[in-house]
Amino acid sequence: MEINDNVPVPGGATDNINIEDEMSSSFIDYSMSVIVARALPDVRDGLKPVHRRVLYAMDELGCTPGKKYMKCARIVGDTMGKYHPHGNMAIYDTLVRLAQPFSLRYPLVDGQGNFGSIDGDPPAADRYTEARMDRLAAEMMEDLNKDTVDFRPTYDETNEEPIVLPAKLPNLLLNGSTGIAVGMATNIPPHNLRELADGITHLIDNPDCAIDDLMAHIKGPDFPTAAMICGVKGIESMYRTGRGQMMVRGRAEIIEDKNRESIIITEIPYMVNKENMVKAMADLVNNDVIDGISNIRDESSDNIRVVIELKRGAMGQVVLNNLYKHTQLQTTFGAIMLAIHQGRPKVMNLKELIQYWLQHRFEVITRRTRFELAKAEARRHIVDGLLKALDHLDEIVRLIRAAQNRDEARAGLLAQYGFSEKQADAILEMRLYQLTGLERSKLEGELGELLERIGYLNGLLEFPGRIYALIKEDLALLREKYGDARRTELVPLAGEVSMEDLIADAPCILTLSHKGYIKRVPLDTYREQRRGGRGISGATTKEEDFIETLFLAETHDTILFFTNLGRVFAERAFEIPEASRTSTGKAIVNLLELREGEKVAAMLRIRKFHDDQFVFFVTEQGTVKKTRLSDYKNVRRDGIIALNIEDTDHLIGVRLTSGSNQMILVTAQGMAIRFPEDQVRPMGRGATGVKGIDLEDKDTIRGFDIVREDLSFLIATANGYGKRTAFDDFRVQNRGGKGLIGIQTSARNGEVVAAAAVNDDDSLIMVTANGMMVRSPLDQVRVIGRNTQGVRLINLDDGDELVSASVIHAEDDVAGASSSQGEVTAPEPPPTN
Description:
Blueprint: H1 19-39, H2 49-60, E1 70-71, H3 72-83, H4 88-99, E2 109-112, E3 130-133, H5 135-141, E4 151-153, E5 160-162, H6 171-175, E6 177-180, E7 185-188, H7 193-205, H8 211-215, E8 228-230, H9 233-241, E9 243-249, E10 251-257, E11 260-267, H10 274-286, E12 293-298, E13 306-310, H11 316-326, E14 330-336, E15 338-341, E16 344-347, H12 350-391, H13 393-402, H14 406-417, H15 421-428, H16 437-462, H17 464-482, E17 489-491, H18 499-502, E18 507-513, E19 517-522, E20 536-537, E21 547-554, E22 558-563, E23 567-572, E24 586-587, E25 600-606, E26 614-619, E27 623-628, E28 640-641, E29 651-657, E30 662-667, E31 671-676, E32 690-691, E33 701-706, E34 712-717, E35 721-726, E36 740-741, E37 752-758, E38 763-768, E39 772-777, E40 791-792, E41 802-808, H19 810-815, E42 822-823
Parallel strand pairs: 8-17
Antiparallel strand pairs: 1-3, 2-3, 4-5, 6-7, 8-9, 9-14, 10-11, 11-13, 12-13, 15-16, 18-19, 18-21, 19-24, 20-39, 22-23, 22-25, 23-28, 26-27, 26-29, 27-32, 30-31, 30-33, 31-36, 34-35, 34-37, 35-40, 38-39, 38-41, 41-42
Helix pairs in contact: 2-3, 3-4, 7-17, 12-15, 12-16, 13-14, 14-15, 16-17
């Protein structure tokens, strides 16, 4: 509608405007203000303006990690008064959320006091609570004072605030973000730091990689409340298009007690109010929507525990499915990866989000380098002047003493010696003690360090690859310092194609190095050679590392990892990264939650968890134990106890047995003992075991296997010698005896390294400390007596030694079929399929 009447404006003229145009223009201005300055995060640091201002205010107040806590009212007041004039409650709510471990995967604020609960309880008033920055927030702020980011005036132009933080961490993906703007919204889920670091490192090394390559490292969202994401289609859609719908389920376990079942809920979906969820369950029971529940109790304390007691005869799985259907025990997370990029809102895929953060970090490090370079150049300029002054010390002292005032002395230094103004000022400010010879040496040393630093900084600016290398180093340090295991489990959804369906069930070799690098390699990578051959390079290992364990499996097998401390982890074989023959592999700590000093001692490949099979354990000090295989069917992500082990002892290997086999153990000094397995009764996972052999002082167990009369017993030694001996040569003894001589451990042979049951058609893969591998047919190793030295198995270079020997059975090699290798550090028989 046109305005035809002129409306008088005090002190000025009148304008004719179109009200539709004015409304449209004003609304666009308003909506862009909400989008950019309030509701959406910046892709570079993952923060909205209010989050950034709270953290900056805390930094300015000195409320940093390691310092004392500060009243939240003080933090809120400073933020509102200096940077964010939008109300104290909005600021305090932001501060509270940054401190809630159930809201942020990696909290940025360390709170003290009542900061609310997962039940929706409000936090205490800001005058009662205290806070300081968390260590991760300090990492986000690092180098802020080194001209790494731009600043702008605050709302009243009395202070300045950063437009964005240096963001050493990819916070947008790390903690996610939620916001509703005008006409658009964002909902980005949080992720795991370790997975993000691995994915970003992969992108740096492979800039042209596909999103699927990144998804091999970044598996999916990782919520602070754990739970489970059902299916991968929503995750794939989110990563590829920026939008996706994911089904999130709480974790519930059905247990049976006194002929009735109960459901125990220990994890709930992200952003679900537990109290409201439990109340909704009770209402559904009272309204007869869900049948079969007799009682619901919330027994939660620090950890969630909701107990749902079922009526006698009620089926737990049916009730649980109804709870998933009708309550927030199952929710849908609608992901929209929308963020501000270059001042505009944009929906981005996974690769774009990482690339934009990388571009920001590259700029931050470049600006920091220029800042430090300018500072180093300025200091070098001063040091040059001071050293020059010391070279003309007497003349300069006379010039200064003859001068009437500082300005005259300064002018003389400029005119007679060509000093710059800054150098002249520095000379005039020198103290007498700086004229000593010791101070001169300090200046010369400082100059050398400055020149080295300047060269390094110039190199960073000249070669961008070095900056990306710095980003990778930062990520590796942050991963090590703050990384933790994934909480949210990714489970297949009925009807979806699982990863297992997409991967062929084929034989492969798993290798594990002494320093803990694992990889999966196709079996046909290693060609067969004659006995005594030189071999091929098996792997490129890191300095002072070597291949310690070789293991044959199939890609669909479950691999049980037993550690030297007696714990066990489980992974599918196809989940172990495939690599080339010469590559180092991936650090096993990226797959398993190993503790300090813990390493994998043995591996078993399992097709099915049969009740009539046993896991037989042997420790370094000769303790043996067996436990039913079915006891290890459900292994948690963070591992479970496999056996109780003494602090001075370590697990060296495991074997899968029938319960009625005979076992043979071999020590480092060549002693061997053969005894019936039934002399070791089945024990629980937490048991320690019994004595298997009486060891001499300083002797230890080096290998063991199941006795099979149709095979021979191979023993290999460190100096590359070995032999095969008939099992008949080892008479049956009682468990716990001294044993018999299995091989002579002479100076020529060295100590025993490996032992396994073999036949003529098998092959032996030998690995040396220098990473060389030889695959040799065992029919070239003749069967000889027990108390002998054996023949040469492999030609070793000077200083090299044999560290591992693993058997490839003929049926595995020809058919690529189902049985396992007789492996030294973790031997096992063919499992029953």
